[in-house]
Amino acid sequence: MYLTEETRNYLSSDEVFDSQFPVYVQQLSRIHWTPLNVASTAAKFLAPDPQSRIIDIGAGVGKFCIAGSCYSKGAFTGIEQRKNFVTAGNKVIKTLGIERAQLIHGNFTELDLTSFTGIYFYNSFHENLVFSDALDNKVEVSTELFEQYSAHLLTQLNAMPIGTRLATFWLSITEIPGCYKLQESHFNNLLKLWVKES
Ligand SMILES: C[S@@+](CC[C@H](N)C(=O)[O-])C[C@H]1O[C@@H](n2cnc3c(N)ncnc32)[C@H](O)[C@@H]1O
How many Cα neighbours within 13 Å face the side chain of 38? Predict the structure, then answer.
């Protein structure tokens, strides 16, 4: 696929990629945004062909969606509850002229996931368990929300069609329904790649 020289340059390292964003966003990257090598492996698995439609649940500033669209042929949508992240990410998408990535502002509980062929999930609800890991104080965090979001995701994962691809980063194996079969693990088992088989 065609990538401009500018885009290729931004994919040369995490630091260079992150430098497109405001400083407060760069400072969150090491802990909260998917590293480029992880994004590359996950995106190639999730989007094996141009018809692949991927949803990133809790997309942050869209690092996974932007990089994923460059590393694969699929279309990437990210849903993110913090509006400032969506604004920052969509600005970069526009500047780079990326056509197969978009960020939507909202809570993932408002979205029907069944129109997507693949799901990416980087432990997005963790800040509701360990408050000191919260990205900022712009949204409410609580253990009740963790339970609510986890239950909703489980229901959605169970409702997805057979063949749905799922990539989880920093998630325990016990959190994924048994109808998803683990295909591959990478990066010290932190990235797990699944397919829904029943
Ligand atoms: C660990 S970051 C991952 C960012 C991105 N997926 C990546 O890999 O670069 C998790 C993000 O999920 C978002 N988030 C958490 N709960 C959410 C919810 N219920 N709906 C939408 N976004 C949510 C947070 O605001 C945060 O930006």
Answer: 24
User: How many angstroms separate the first and last alpha carbons of the chain?
Assistant: 33
Q: How many domains does the chain have?
A: 1
Mind listing the pLDDT tens digit for each residue in 156-170?
Answer: 999 999 999 999 999
Tell me how far the alpha carbon of residue 57 is from its chain's centroid.
6
Render pLDDT for 50-77 as a digit per residue (tens, 0 to 9): 999 999 999 999 999 999 999 999 999 9
Query: What is the extent of the structural domain holding 97?
Result: 5-196
The whole-angstrom distance between residue 134's C-alpha and the CA centroid of its chain comes to 17
Instruction: State pTM to two decimals.
Output: 0.97
Tell me, what CATH number does 76's domain have? 3.40.50.150
**Phi first, then psi: what are they for 60, rounded to 5°?**
60, -135
Within 6 A (CB) of ligand 1 lie: 32-34, 56, 58-60, 63-64, 79-82, 85, 107-108, 122, 124-125, 135, 149
